[in-house]
Amino acid sequence: MELAEQLWTRVLAVSPADPKALKALRRVWSKGQSETKKPAPPTSSPEPEVELRSEVGVDYTRLRNLLAAGKWKEADKETASVMLKASGFEGRGYLDISEIKRISCTDLRTINQLWVKYSDGHFGFSVQQGIYESLGGTEIYNPIIWKDFSERVGWSLEGRWRNNSTFPSNAFAGYLPLVETLPIMPDGNNFSWDDLNWFKIYNVFSHLANCKEKPESSFVLNTEVELRSEKGVDYTRLRELLAAGQWKQADKETVTVLLKAAGSEGRDNFDLEDMDKIPCTDLRTIDQLWVKYSSGRFGFSVQKCIWKEVGGKVDYETEKRLGERVGWRKSGSWLDYSDLTFSTQAPVGHLPGMRYLAGGWSAQTEGMVSRYLKQGYLMEGVYLLSRTYL
Q1: Burial of 57 (0-12, 13-18, 19+ CB in 10 A)
Q2: Chain segment 169-219, per-residue pLDDT in tens
Q3: What domains are defined for the chain?
Q4: Could you tell me which residues are beta bridge partners of residue 185?
Q5: Which one of 31, 123, 168, 333 has the largest count of C-beta atoms within 10 Å of its C-beta?
Q6: Are the beta carbons of 293 and 302 closer than 8 angstroms?
């Protein structure tokens, strides 16, 4: 600064003895310095990686790699493949429209998030859903809105479907995943091409809307569970077994404390009438312990959430779908208790083994989950949890 000032006093013939001139020179110099300083560009933190989560063990690595490489056509086909795997119909090769909900929310979100991330928000089911709704689309088929939507995303032009075998780099927002590639078939044959494609994509939208991101179970996972009981049941041993990861012993202890809460201590299993006697306070304590020590993987409320995803009906077909989702049923048959998986490698909702509390399910007994829901115990017991993390 001093050297620059000396040079400028010589160039401008400013006398070092003239304080006013020097003050003016310094003011001009300071202004020039401040104007030349440019603020550093803001640094942006990198986008977080999409966690490749699946409730049924689907590996999404290949889909992620294809999307990251911009191989859109291959990624579109891989999307159909992983959707079939996630639904359990890989061998059959297609889904009925009514079976889309067999894809868990966790898996559907993973697929969608991968598309959104690697397309910079250009592609993905949620992008398509946003466009559809912005045009006034609802659950009721409207041919005008559907025409506008299919043209907006580039699937059709002037009412005629394009040959979507090419994947241009400048594709319209929402162009992918392609509706034609989705492995979904109608329940029946009385569908036009437009009807079929609308039914396919709207049912994906509907399922995705029902699978909105749920906040983590901070209330249960990050706090101690109060061992409350209206019947004086001591849940200390159940808590200790769960904290130690002794899942099989904890499952058996769950039967013991449920019988105590029902006032039926000393018996080996339940009569369905015993369910009426279990206070909601006790049911919540047991559920919260399972949820906390499994990091949200196991528990009655987790099972109830999956029950809703597979139809939420009190009938044997819904129970079978629930059993297939949580791993109680394989290859069309119910597993024996000894064949359950007592580890965190088990499917989400696998434990507690509710099916086995009353010695097995049947179409006549309607099953343990159905009994809970029909009588309102899980509904009431889960209500508090539904406002926190379900």
Answers
A1: exposed
A2: 678 888 999 988 888 876 555 567 677 788 888 888 888 887 764 444 444
A3: 61-210 (no CATH), 218-386 (1.10.10.1770)
A4: 96
A5: 123
A6: no
